Amino acid sequence: MTHVTEDDLDDLEFDTLRTGDHISAARRLTELAESVSGGVSRANVLLRAGEQWQHAGDHARAAELYRRAMEDGGETYGDPRAYLADALFELGRGDEARALVDQIRADKPRDPEVYRAVAEVLYAQGDATGAHEWATSGADVVLELRDRAVGTGMGGGPDEAPAPDADTLTPGLDDVALGPVSWIMCGARSRGWRR
């Protein structure tokens, strides 16, 4: 087993941005997925490998790895179905891609990254209306998370806001103050930022 951290994966991807050798990165990540242990999930490595294959123009391999990430079920950033939909669109399988987008919508994700990814995929396909709807829904999720954290939304009043040192997954005031800005800027997981 190979111990891999998010920093290791980020370093590999930053090197790839410098060299442009997406095929080597995709191969390395695919190999790592078979032996990963420790800081990252196998599904996360598979998803990143799929992205590198997609950057290299091999959409069929990318789709295969996205499917494997979905089957693995481990923790990933975003939703592998959004990335699979992108690969399927590139392969001319638009009906399958749209079915995945519909599945994601039906699940009502709470992760803004999912909305950003789907909006970007739809925009790339010339669906400006769909992209706008997904981006708007994603912004609504960010605002709802912010409101919960500052105690003005569904999360209750200020007395119910988590203490700064609380062991919680709820975003703190510092996190949500940047939430809408970082989401709009596409964050570290943005395909646009990484290309």
Structural features:
195 residues; mainly alpha; two-stranded parallel sheet; 2 strands
Tell me what the structure shows.
The radius of gyration is 18 Å and the shape is globular. With 195 residues, the protein is mainly alpha-helical. Helix content is 68%, strand content 2%. It is built from 10 helices and 2 strands.
Helix content estimate: 55-70%
**Taking Cα atoms only, what radius of gyration do you get, to the nearest Å?**
18 Å
Strand order of the largest sheet: 1-2
Global outline = globular
Return residue spans where pLDDT drops below 50 for at least 5 consecutive residues: 155-166, 173-195
Q: Averaging pLDDT over every residue, what do you get?
A: 79
User: How far do the termini sit from each other?
Assistant: 30 Å
Q: Characterize the largest beta sheet: strand count, sense, and whether it forms a barrel.
A: 2 strands, parallel
The helix/strand series, from N terminus to C terminus, equals EHHEHHHHHHHH
In short:
The chain has 195 residues and is mostly helical.
SSE layout:
Elements: E1 2-3, H1 6-19, H2 22-35, E2 36-37, H3 42-55, H4 59-72, H5 80-90, H6 94-107, H7 112-124, H8 128-150, H9 173-184, H10 191-194
Parallel strand pairs: 1-2
Helix pairs in contact: 1-2, 2-3, 3-4, 4-5, 5-6, 5-7, 7-8, 8-9
